[in-house]
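User: Fold this; tokens only.

Assistant: Input:
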Amino acid sequence: MEREEDAKNSINTAEKSIKESSKYVHAQQKSSQEQQQQNQLTDTLNAMEGKPKRKITTSFKKKELLMALSPTVRRYFKLLRLLESGNDCKRSTYKWFTIISIVWLGLHFILNLEADEVKGTVELKPQMAAVSLGIFVGICIPIIIFYIYKYFDDQGENFYQLWRHLSVQKRKKSSKVLRYITRIIKIWACFMWLVFTIIVLLLVFGWFYPTMESWFRVYEASFYFSIVWNLTWGGLYCFGLTFYLIAIISSAASEKINQISSETIDRLTDYSHMEEGEIDVLKELTRKCKVAELQLQKGYKTVGICLAQVVIIGILQTVIPLLDIVLLIIGGFRPRPIAIIVLIMYTLPFAVGLYVVLSYATQPSIDYTAFIHACHKPDTLWTISKCYSGNQATLQYFFDGLELQRQHFIWKAMGLPITMELYHRVIGSLVSINLASVALALRSTLI
């Protein structure tokens, strides 16, 4: 009997200790959450009042981030030295050398110099497709490189704060896009290394352009060197990384929108009937929107410019080559079927890339629209109407305000908000133009 009583006492003591420890852990978690909310509120108020930012000590470490990233993304970050400081000599040298080399490459496409070995002269023959390719390479990609490095001027702190809150599934999905792009770049790099080696040997031994002057041989050699550099180590890696950053920031924005939506709707449907309880819900909604806006602001501002360049590249490289062949057909040229197939294979990756980018970029707008629709449900609408004393005319201002807040949660390209409406217009127009061009080109080959 005494042993049974001792066992019961020990069990009761253990249960009490477990309950006390669980209460302590719960209290610690609650206090940390409250402290985090208070810090976010302080940052929001300081930003609204124009005060300097609060100094934050975070546990962000470059080595920990690199180890947590997928191997493909880690290779990009190390190659481009994105997590190094802006004063790093290797980072600055790599950045500006890549920009200069790819601008030179774009200039070569725009000029499109052709040698006449019989006359020994060089002629300038610009073409529409070559000019569009020169704009893609010599203008759009340098802008992308500059603003990617500008986004990482904080050594990856903003990226880490967005990336760490994403689920493992969303991280893997974003990395998968970059992995496919890397495979395409590697295939082109291997092919161009072979071509570069052959061309250099022909130029050195005088078998290529034997009657031309030395400056033109150097010009051609530098052209192929720029291609190999940018495919192996340079600008196209920054172009591929843009897809990954757009996917990460879009996923983070969607995550924040869904979090704000679920918390707000829960409070509007199951709020405690206290005096001025509804107004507190609206105040909390305003605070959360402001905090999310400040967290997404840098990514939308800098990477948004890269997004605009990707959209321009996708449209130009999908439409211009096909329009160029259509103009040649109108002028009497009859292309071979193999030329049409090669042209379609060239434009297809750009069309798929544009589709992928716009699919990710429109996701925040879709989630925000779902949030507004949830606010229109009868139970939540009744609670919101109480905040405005049941005045339907005044209640409309609430939804107008939500629409105005949309611009802080969605992407913009060249000042245009990336919404489903824009997505349908762009994709629908490109599909119509491309199908008409391909149909005309195929018809010309049968005549």
